[in-house]
Structure formats: structure tokens, C-alpha cells
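Re: the request from the purification team.
They wanted to know what the chain is likely to look like in 3D before they choose a buffer screen. I agreed to run a prediction and write the result into the notebook, where they can find it.
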Amino acid sequence: MKRTVLTLLLALTSSAFAGLDEGKAALEAGNYPLAETEFATVSSPQKLYWRAQIWLKRRSSLEDIVDARRYLQDAAQVGYAPAMTALGESYNRIENFGSGEAAGYLETEGKKVFDWFKKAAQAGDPEGMYRLAAWYDGINDAASAAKNMVLALEWYKKAAALGNGAALYQMGVFYLEGVRVPKDPAQTQTLWTQAVKVGDTDAMIALAQQYEGGKSDAALEQSLTLYLKAAEVGDVRGMGKMGRAYLSGVFGGGTLTKNLPQALRWLEAAAAAGDGDAGYEAGVIYARGVGVKQDLERAEKLLGNMTDSGLGFTVYARILEGDFQDFVSALYWYGKAAGPLPPDPADPDSFGADAEEQSAEGVGDPDAQKALVRLYLSKKPGVPYDPAFALRWAEVVLRRANRDPDQAFLASLFVQGLGTAKDLDKVLEPYRNVARAGDNEDFMAFIVLVQYALGQSFERGQGREKDLDQALELYQNAARAGNKKDYLADAIARVQYALAKSFDYGEGRTQDYAKAASLYRQAAEGGQMDAAAQLGYFYFTGRGVPKDDKQAVSWSRIAAGQGNAKGLFNLGLAFELGQGVVKDLKQALELYLRAAALGSASAQGALGALYFNGVAVPQDLKRAADWFGKGAEGGDRGAQYNLGVCYENDWGVTQDLELARLWYGKAAAQGQTQARDALARLGVTKP
């Protein structure tokens, strides 16, 4: 009879444990109804504890947490220590459960967390001991006020002694860093090895990293084994590491046989566990069909599940556009990545919730938004040419970039597609209407920047022929919008100066000194110091304006005051010749030296002349030749001629008729008449 009862008890016990194991397996697989059924066969308080785990794992609503806590409290009240730990952890979460019937918000309740962890630790639960130690360690933000490293160390040791993997790992860290214990790398190795045996993945990864740094094949083998072990129990770091190792064929300081199926297996697993980079790597492989059958659906899923799904869709769109020239599909995926559709200035009804959301910082992938601007202006097959729609996305991009005119995107915004300033003016009109009607500073700033961007493309010849007149018109249109930004004034003055030079030298248009002088003046008034210096030169020579030494000195002085090399040279020349100022050779010398230090070839040539003639300095033919050489290398034709004279006559340099002919030739090529005569004298008929 006793034997029968004992057999019955053993059978019941065996059945209970079977139910527990099967329930755990169902719980891990996410089969909550089966887990509930299996846990029902387990005796209390384990039944209560494991039923609570169902609700904690599911956590689909606030009620799940509340139900779990009720079961855990019942189990804890009868002394079941694991339930105490789990109860503490349930109070250690911050969760928001959306809207509707399940709406609710849970905050960390520090006092309850601490109390339950402490009760669990005192009841002998190793996990409770570890949690209490971590609380004293201040690992949880809510626990920072209770930080006590003496108690933390005490409970970590107790938990480690009972085989808690996390505690073993943490004690290993302490011995590695010398935290409250002497540094002892060997002890760290021992503790982490013990932690690995009980399944702690932090220890697996830490040891794997240590072995990976080793040079021997044995160390690398151990490292690989540990990464694989971590991967097989679902550690995202281990899975990502194995995937990348099999993909690259590189591991640590050694090599590994490439294995694309294994690489994809682990990369996809890591992606599912939240490794966005792994999703990117696997997604690109499937999208491009590199070494594997192309699977765009799988690629889309992997890239879309990246931490930043917008970035994933952008990557996918780039592959479609670049690898397959599928512009229509690329447009679709760029659109998905770009975020909510921006408002249409021609449709007041579009300024609703989406417009407000689009205005928020960080909405949509900016690279996708830029791609949409580019594609809608590109005239690619199947993509509608739509400057107005492109502008809607451009407004979003510039809003997000705080309308910084130096953004690289601006310079290439309308490289393709848009025509002239007048074409842009038509497309911008709806934005002007909105801006005027509601005093919308955002849109007005956008109008200014778009005109500035197109102006840059004309000024620089990016994606179109260079056209300074169009650039100036666009910059001036932007300025007339009422925006007094410094960068606009600089751009206008810069183009005015460039246009002035084209009229001055007859580059691409009929030479016209009067127009050049007018534009130099406008540019100088806008702060272009090269223009101010050249205007001073015009007044010295009477080119395009009546000769006026006082005006010449005035404009040269303005440029010189800003450290402009040409302005300094002009002013030096005025003091040397006594034009518009009292003659002062020492002042001229000082100004020439400053200009020469800034690279002015004319000033370097002028200094050579002073030393050659002994004016304001003792005569020194060697120094004269040196200065002529610098000016000649810098392209000053007078210095080139004078250097030729020095080489012809053995003045300051060793006589060298070939070098004399060389420098005379360079000067003659720039129209220096005396150099032509010198070449004829030396037997050169054609300069």
C-alpha cells in the first residue's frame, strides 16, 4: 500500500514538472493559451508565478500588468522568492499603453521595487540578490539615490556564489576594473567562464571579445565559439557578429570561410532582434541579388524594419534607382521614406494636421526628401516633371535645415529641370501669395533661399551654362523679397564684381569700361574689396570714369583698410608718385611690402624697381632681381620684363640670355611693347 502511494506521488510530481516545462516552452514560443493550460497543472505558488509570466511577456495592455501583479503578490505572500523578484521588476518598468480601453501609463515605483527586491534577496532568490545589488549599484536611474557600493558588492557576491550568471559577470567586471576589489584579470576570466556555463550572454560576449584580440588560432577559435554560443541563445550582438563574420570572411586577426547562407541566417535573426545595421546589410543583399536569388519583398521587409524605417526605404529606393533604373518604383519608396505630404501653397485646405506634422523636427528621411526634389525635376522615364511638387518637398528640406544657405543641398537644388529666373518666378508665385496673405515668414524665407540656390547654379555653372546675368537677377529678386541676409548682399556684390570683370576684360561680352566701372562701384558698395581696389585703379587711369586722383585714393584706401592686396598696392603707387596724396616714399615702401606679403605680384615688381633704382632704400641689384623674380612668377608683366633685363645684363643675377628671352617672351605675350623690342634685339622675331 505504501509503495502504491509513493508511486502515485512520484507520478504526480513528474506530471507537474512536465507541465511546467511544456508551459515554459509554449510561453517562449508565444503560445499563451497553451502556456496557460500547461501551467494550470502546476501546483501553487509556481502556478501563480508562471501564469503571471504570461501576462508580463504579453504586456498588450495595462490590465495585463495589473493581472500579473495580482498573481505575483499571491505567490509572494506565501514566501515564493522568485515571485518577489518578478514583482519588483514589474514595478521597475515605464510603459505607455496607447489609447482606447487599454490606455494607461505605468511609472517606475522605486520604493516598491526596492522593497520586493530586498525581500526576494533575503528569501534566498539568486536573481533577487542580483537585482538588489544592481539597485545599490545605481544601475537603475530611479535607484541612484540609494547607491551603496558596499552593499552592492555584498549582494553581488552572494548572488554569484549561488550561480547567478549576471552577478558572476558583474563581479568579473569589478575584478577587471578594480572596483572595491583588487584588479585581478585572472579572477575575471574565472568568473566570466562560470557565467558562461550558466548561460549569461554578457559574459559570452565579453570573453569572446577578449579572445578575439588574441593572436593565436586557438584564441580566435574560442572567440568564435563564444559568439556562436551567444547567437544560438538569441543574443543580438552574437547574431550580428556571426552574420558579419560569415559575410566578410574576416574574423579578428584571422580569416573565416565565407558562407552567405549562414551570413544571411544570422543577419536576419539579428535584424529581427532589433539590429538595424544587420537588416540593412541583409536587405541590400536580397535587393541586389548578390550571391542569392533576388527577393525584393524580403529586402523591403528587412530595410523597412530598420530602427529608422525611413532610412531603410531610402536605401531600397536608391538600389531601385541606381542598380535597376526603376525610377517609378524608386519614386514610390522615396515617397514612403520622406514622410507626410507637404502642404500645397495653392490649396489652403492642405494646411492641416499633416502640414503641422511635416513642420515638426525630424519627420521623414531628409535624403529621401532631397531625392524627391531631384527626381521631380529630372525628367527621368516614367517620372512626371513637376517643379511645383519638387518645390513643396524643397520647402520641407530647407525648413528642416533651418534654412541654412550653406547647406550643400542648396547649391544643387535646381541643377536639373528648372529654367530661368522667370520660370522659377512663376512656380514661386503661390508661395508669395501665402506669404503676403498671412505674413508667413517661413515661406518668405523659403522663397529667398530657392532663388539663392538657383542663382548659385547659374553663378557656378552647375548643371547648366554659367550665366552671371541670371545669377544677379535671382540674387536681386531674393533681396527684394525684403530679406536683408548678409549672404544675399555678399552674393550680389560677388556677381556684380564678376560681371564688372567680364566687361573690363571683354570676357564673353563686348568690352565696356563704363559698364565695368558702374558694376565695380555697386560691388564695392556691397563690400567687395577687390572691386573697390579696381575702381580706384579706374579713377587713377581714367578708364570708364573721368580721371580723379582723389577718388582713386579714396577707393584704394577703403580696400587697403580691409587688408586688400590690390588696394594696398594702389595706395602705395599713389604715395610713390604723389597722385592724390603728398608724395611719401617711405609710406609707399611700407604699403608695397604689405601688399607683397599678401601675394601681390604688382607690389613685388614695384619693390624690385625701388631696389634697382635705390629709391627709398639703398640700391641693391640682387634684392631687386629677387623681387622681380617673385613678381614675374606671379604674372606681373612689368616684373617679367625687368627680370629679363637683369638676365640680359648680368644685373643681380648671372647673365643668361636664354632666361632673358624666356621672361621677355612672357612679358611680350601680355602686351609689353619694350619686351618685344628686347626680343628682336636678341634675335627672336616672333615672341
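For the purification team: The longest helix spans residues 2-28.
Please add any questions underneath this entry.
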